[in-house]
Write the structure tokens for this entry.
Amino acid sequence: GLPECPVTSIHIDSQNNLYAGTLCGGLYSLNRTKNKFEHIELEVSVSDQKVNDIISQNEMLFVATDFGIYQ
């Protein structure tokens, strides 16, 4: 599930996948089969775990943090 820290952004992509970015726990996606959120590992340091925004374009996901944009 989601960590005990605030959700900072929510995004639904063109394939109806739901993503949640958090203040201190990074990025999560909703596994609709299990009906629970699962953590998505980003190649970022611990200080980058604050997700500011999530967007998708051409089936690619972009995650904005205080230190850059990751895909």
About this structure: The chain has a mean pLDDT of 90. The CA atoms of residues 12 and 25 lie 19 Å apart.
